[in-house]
């Protein structure tokens, strides 16, 4: 199979995932700015794998406006993650340099904040290698549209100009979003995914990004 475009997930694929303690701190700071002392369940609800239902239920428990709370949460996440990037604690993977060698249109679809993705691309001087990139805006609507929803993958495919494309990710939601958008998937099983079990079947499973050069 020879693909005409590749779209990448960001975290755990191109750059290392963010330290959980850093994200937990940003989530705690969000609650603090609304004068809420969160339970463990409250924190878990907004830490990762966030759903609109979960967010709205948590906000209802505490009399918070979901839109305002979420904007603050995502702004805090962007601030701390931009600092992690700039201070060297969220490095690019060595094999992510493959994006400089792939001679087809490339894109990024991340469930991280768009502003976080922009800082990453600028910091690692990668912007010119991608014809398109999407993160989330800090809105409840974009929580609804994040992967496994195919919304942003479909937009990226329009931008790269072909559906003869591969989507590369390190989560089940990446494989699901790719298939929902009608394209083949690569599940990237890096070290942090050694024990991760998938309930969906990716088109390919690789341990590094190196095999991509033979697929385009
Ligand atoms: Mg990821």
Automatic annotation (TrEMBL):
EC number(s) stated in the UniProt entry for this protein: 3.-.-.-
Enzyme class (EC, first level): hydrolase
Superkingdom in the source lineage: Archaea
GO molecular function, one term: hydrolase activity
Keywords in alphabetical order: Hydrolase
Name of a matching Pfam family: HAD_2
Family per record: Belongs to the HAD-like hydrolase superfamily.
UniProt-recorded name of the protein: HAD family hydrolase
Transmembrane annotation, as ranges: none
Species this chain originates from: Halomarina rubra
């Amino acid at each position: 199979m020879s693909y005409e475009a590749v779209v990448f997930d960001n975290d755990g694929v191109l750059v290392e995932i963010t330290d959980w303690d850093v994200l937990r701190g940003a989530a705690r700071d969000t609650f603090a700015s609304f004068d809420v002392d969160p339970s463990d369940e409250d924190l878990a609800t907004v830490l990762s794998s966030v759903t609109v239902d979960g967010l709205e239920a948590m906000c209802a428990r505490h009399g918070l406006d979901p839109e305002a709370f979420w904007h603050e949460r995502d702004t805090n996440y962007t601030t701390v993650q931009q600092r992690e990037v700039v201070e060297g604690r969220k490095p690019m993977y060595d094999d992510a340099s493959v994006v400089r060698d792939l001679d087809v249109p490339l894109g990024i679809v991340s469930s991280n904040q768009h502003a976080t993705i922009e800082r990453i691309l600028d910091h690692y001087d990668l912007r010119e290698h991608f014809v398109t990139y999407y993160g989330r805006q800090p809105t409840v609507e974009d929580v609804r549209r994040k992967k496994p929803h195919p919304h942003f993958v479909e937009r990226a495919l329009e931008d790269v100009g072909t559906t003869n494309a591969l989507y590369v990710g390190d989560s089940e939601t990446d494989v699901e979003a790719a298939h929902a958008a009608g394209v083949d998937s690569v599940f990237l099983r890096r070290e942090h995914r050694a024990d991760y079990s998938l309930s969906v079947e990716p088109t390919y499973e690789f341990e590094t990004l190196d095999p991509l050069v033979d697929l385009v």
